């Protein structure tokens, strides 16, 4: 995911799925921020720690991101109306995806039988994990799938359901008060980040070098934190890790928002509204997962 570009004085940075300047090689992948370790089982619960999916780099052709400062007339950002329509389409998709996940997450709290079934079915979690992995790679790597209707919407729907089930199972191990608290905190943080990223004149996309360094630190520290929590029952390291990870994903959300808005060093092609919606959706879901790791309370 990381690769240095040929700009003088520019540090290397972490490249998210599809982020690359024109003329560079977008297919090299590197380390990703480590995924959170799910939750730590307590009080007689099964020793099961599902791992939420990491961000996956594309391995095929991807024209989703272009470099600002070049002729973008071929990318459809030549008029404000086209850009506004693109932004509107992205946020409508993100809203629908988040609504589906929220409804799925609420289902176990409405029925004790459903709650017991969800908590005792780790195999379904891993099926959802694999489904997400395959569909996400397909959407990121195959432009024909990502840009063809209705295939792109069907694939996005499958990905949303997979993430929804994973979130539902993670939340089922926490009480409803802590889940609602984390949901409110996530909503407030994300709204604030979106407003800031869309209004500030500072180009957050130029921070990718710093983000790469922070991601490398998070990767190493996350591995140590998970091993310490599982093998040595040292929980505080994982708490610190979750807090740092939440902040990093908030920065990624701000960067992705600016890439959708356009006018910065890097931006997303308006033809890739599915790609943009998935990136924003995953940023928000990761923030919620991390906050739940910090503030979640084990379900009795």
From TrEMBL:
Q: Where is this region: Disordered?
A: 1-44
The answer on whether this UniProt entry bears the keyword Transmembrane reads yes
Report the principal subcellular site: membrane
Keywords in alphabetical order: Membrane, Transmembrane, Transmembrane helix
CDD domains to which the protein is assigned, alphabetical: LFG_like (cd10428)
Q: Which domain of life is it from?
A: Eukaryota
Q: Where in the cell is it found?
A: Membrane
Q: What is the lineage of its organism?
A: Eukaryota, Metazoa, Ecdysozoa, Nematoda, Chromadorea
Q: What is this protein called?
A: Fas apoptotic inhibitory molecule 2
Family note: Belongs to the BI1 family.
User: What membrane topology is annotated for this entry?
Assistant: Multi-pass membrane protein
Q: Name one GO biological process term.
A: negative regulation of apoptotic signaling pathway
Q: Where is the composition biased (Low complexity)?
A: 1-30
Any one Gene Ontology cellular component term annotated for this protein: endoplasmic reticulum
Q: Which Pfam families match?
A: Bax1-I
What residue intervals traverse the membrane? 90-111, 123-142, 149-170, 176-197, 209-232, 238-255, 275-295
Q: Which InterPro entries match?
A: Bax_inhibitor_1-related
């Amino acid at each position: 995911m990381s690769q240095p570009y040929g700009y003088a004085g520019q540090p290397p940075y972490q490249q998210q799925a599809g982020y690359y300047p024109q003329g560079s090689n977008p297919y090299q992948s590197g380390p990703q921020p480590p995924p959170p370790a799910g939750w730590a089982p307590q009080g007689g619960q099964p020793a099961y720690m599902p791992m939420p999916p990491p961000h996956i780099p594309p391995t095929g052709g991807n024209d989703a991101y272009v470099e600002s400062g070049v002729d973008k007339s071929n990318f459809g950002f030549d008029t404000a109306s086209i850009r506004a329509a693109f932004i509107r389409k992205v946020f409508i998709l993100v809203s629908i995806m988040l609504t589906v996940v929220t409804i799925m997450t609420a289902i176990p709290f409405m029925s004790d039988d459903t709650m017991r079934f969800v908590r005792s079915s780790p195999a379904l979690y891993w099926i959802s994990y694999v489904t997400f992995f395959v569909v996400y790679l397909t959407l990121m790597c195959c432009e024909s799938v990502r840009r063809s209707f209705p295939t792109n919407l069907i694939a996005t729907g499958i990905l949303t359901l997979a993430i929804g089930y994973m979130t539902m199972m993670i939340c089922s191990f926490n009480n409803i008060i802590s889940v609602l608290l984390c949901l409110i905190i996530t909503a407030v943080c994300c709204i604030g980040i979106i407003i800031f990223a869309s209004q500030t004149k500072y180009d957050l996309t130029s921070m990718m070098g710093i983000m790469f360094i922070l991601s490398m630190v998070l990767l190493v520290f996350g591995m140590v934190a998970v091993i310490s929590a599982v093998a040595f029952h040292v929980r505080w390291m994982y708490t610190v890790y979750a807090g740092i990870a939440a902040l990093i994903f908030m920065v990624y959300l701000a960067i992705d928002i600016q890439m959708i808005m356009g006018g910065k060093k890097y931006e997303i092609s308006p033809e890739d509204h599915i790609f943009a919606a998935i990136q924003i959706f995953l940023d928000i879901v990761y923030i919620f997962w991390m906050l739940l790791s910090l503030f979640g309370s084990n379900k009795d």
